[in-house]
Specification:
It is a single chain. About 40% of the residues lie in helices and about 20% in strands. It is of the alpha/beta class. A six-stranded mixed β-sheet has the order 4-3-5-6-11-10, with helices on both faces. The longest helix has 17 residues. The chain is globular. It starts with 9 loop residues before the first helix and ends in a 10-residue tail after the last helix. Bound molecules: iron/sulfur cluster. The site of iron/sulfur cluster has 14 residues, from helix 15 and helix 16. The site of iron/sulfur cluster (SF4) has 14 residues, from helix 15 and helix 16.
Length: about 375
C-alpha cells in the first residue's frame, strides 16, 4: 500500500538499525510522545533492536489514556440523563469511570451511540430536534479541528440542541511538564507527526532551547521511527539539541493554517488535568466565550463532579515513563484489555495494552499448572 509498504521495508530497516548501532557509544533515554508510535515500536519490536542502553520511554500521547476520570464521570452523568443522545468514538465506551462505563449505561437503556465523526452527531441533532445531542470531544491537536468545525457549524446552522463535552489537551505543554519533573529521565523526544501536521513546528524551538533536548518529529511506520531514533542518537552523541523534521512528507513547518484558524476561533487555551499526571497549566482547550452556549458541562450542570483517580493503577507512572507496564503488579492479572483497571489498558494505543498484546508471553511468569483466575 502506497506510503505504508515502503516505510516497512525490512532491508532499509536493517540498515537504519545498523546505523543506530554504529553511532551509539553510551546509554540514552528518549521518549516517543505519541501512543501510535508506542504501539508501532512494541508491535514491530523496534525497542528490542536498539543498542543496549538506548531506551524508549513511552509518553503520554494516547488521548483515551490521558482523559481524566473526572471527565469520564461527567460523560456518564450526562449520558444517563433522559432525552440525551450521547455520541462518542468507540474507544471511549469501555473506559471505566469510577463505577461504570458508557457501555453499561447503553446496556441499561441509555442512548449512547458510536459515531465516526462529530459531524454525524450534529446530523443526529438536526434530525432529532426534541432531543439533546452531546459529542464527547477528547484528544490532542489532531482531533480538535473537526470538533471545532462541528461547533462552528452548529452555531452557523442555528442547531441549539447540540453540545460538546470538551477534554482537549495539547502536546507541547505536556512535554515541558515532563521535563520539569524532578524524576524526569527523558534526554530527547520523538515528537508526534500527526500533531505537527495540524500545528506545524513553531512550538518546539522553545522546548529545545529551554531544556536543551533534541526534538525530532517522526511518523508512525517502522522506518519513520527508526529514522527518528537515528537522528536523535546522532544529536545526543554530538551534544547538539535541535529541532528536526523527519516527517516532511506530511508535516509542513507552518502546519494546517485553516485548521489552526478554526481552532483559534472556537477554542481558547486553559489549564487541563491529565489522567495520571495531574494538572498542567495551559495544556488544553475549552470552548471560547463565543461558543460557550455549546458547552455540555454547563448545559447539563456537571461542572461540580470531582473524582479522585484509583490508587491501585500505576498508569500515571507509565505515562511519565517512570515504569514499564509490566512493572505494575496488576499487569495481565487483575488488569487486562477485557477487564482494564486503567486507561492505558483500555485504549489500543495505551502502553499497557500494547505490552499486553505483543509482550505478555515473554514478560509474565507462566502460571502454575492448575491455577485459575
Ligand atoms: S497494567 Fe493496568 S493497573 Fe497497571 S498501570 Fe497499566 S492500566 Fe494501570
Amino acid at each position: 500500500m502506497k506510503y505504508l509498504d515502503e516505510f516497512s521495508n525490512p532491508d532499509l530497516a536493517r540498515r537504519l538499525v545498523e546505523e543506530i548501532h554504529a553511532v551509539t557509544t553510551r546509554p540514552w533515554a528518549m521518549m516517543e510522545v505519541c501512543g501510535g508510535q508506542t504501539h508501532s515500536i512494541i508491535r514491530h519490536g523496534i525497542d528490542q533492536l536498539l543498542p543496549d542502553g538506548v531506551e524508549m520511554i513511552h509518553g503520554p500521547g494516547c488521548p483515551v489514556c490521558v482523559t481524566p476520570l473526572e471527565i469520564i464521570d461527567k460523560a456518564l452523568a450526562i449520558a444517563e440523563k433522559p432525552g440525551v443522545i450521547f455520541c462518542s468514538f468507540g474507544d471511549m465506551l469501555r473506559v471505566p469511570g469510577s463505577s461504570k462505563d458508557l457501555f453499561s449505561i447503553k446496556s441499561a437503556g441509555g442512548d449512547v451511540r458510536v459515531v465516526y465523526s462529530p459531524l454525524d452527531a450534529l446530523k443526529l441533532a438536526r434530525d432529532n430536534p426534541d432531543r439533546q445531542v452531546v459529542f464527547f470531544g477528547i484528544g490532542f491537536e489532531t482531533t480538535a479541528p473537526a470538533n471545532a468545525m462541528t461547533v462552528y457549524q452548529a452555531k452557523k446552522q442555528g442547531i441549539k440542541n447540540f453540545s460538546l463535552l470538551v477534554s482537549h489537551v495539547l502536546v507541547p505543554p505536556a512535554m515541558a511538564a515532563i521535563m520539569d519533573s524532578p524524576k524526569c529521565r527523558v534526554q530527547a523526544f520523538l515528537a508526534a507527526g500527526h500533531v505537527c501536521c495540524v500545528m506545524g513546528t513553531s512550538e518546539y524551538p522553545a522546548i529545545v532551547d529551554k531544556y536543551q533536548v533534541p526534538v525530532v518529529i517522526t511518523g508512525f511506520e517502522p522506518l519513520d521511527i527508526l529514522e527518528g531514533i537515528r537522528r536523535t542518537v546522532i544529536q545526543l552523541e554530538s551534544g547538539r539539541a535541535e529541532l528536526e523534521n523527519a516527517y516532511t512528507r506530511a508535516v509542513p513547518a507552518e502546519g494546517n493554517l485553516p485548521a489552526m484558524e478554526m481552532l483559534r476561533d472556537v477554542f481558547e487555551v486553559t489549564d487541563r488535568t491529565w489522567r495520571g499526571i495531574g494538572e498542567i497549566p495551559l495544556s488544553g482547550w475549552k470552548l471560547s466565550s463565543r461558543y460557550a452556549d455549546y458547552d455540555a458541562e454547563t448545559r447539563f450542570s456537571v461542572t461540580d463532579i470531582h473524582t479522585a483517580e484509583s490508587a491501585l493503577c500505576r498508569s500515571g507512572e507509565v505515562l511519565q515513563g517512570l515504569i514499564k507496564p509490566h512493572e505494575c503488579a496488576a499487569f495481565g492479572k487483575e488488569c487486562t484489555p477485557r477487564n482494564p483497571l486503567g486507561a492505558t489498558m483500555v485504549s489500543s494505543e495505551g502502553a499497557c495494552a500494547a505490552y499486553f498484546t505483543y509482550r505478555r508471553l515473554e514478560l509474565m511468569e507462566p502460571e502454575p499448572a492448575g491455577a485459575s483466575r
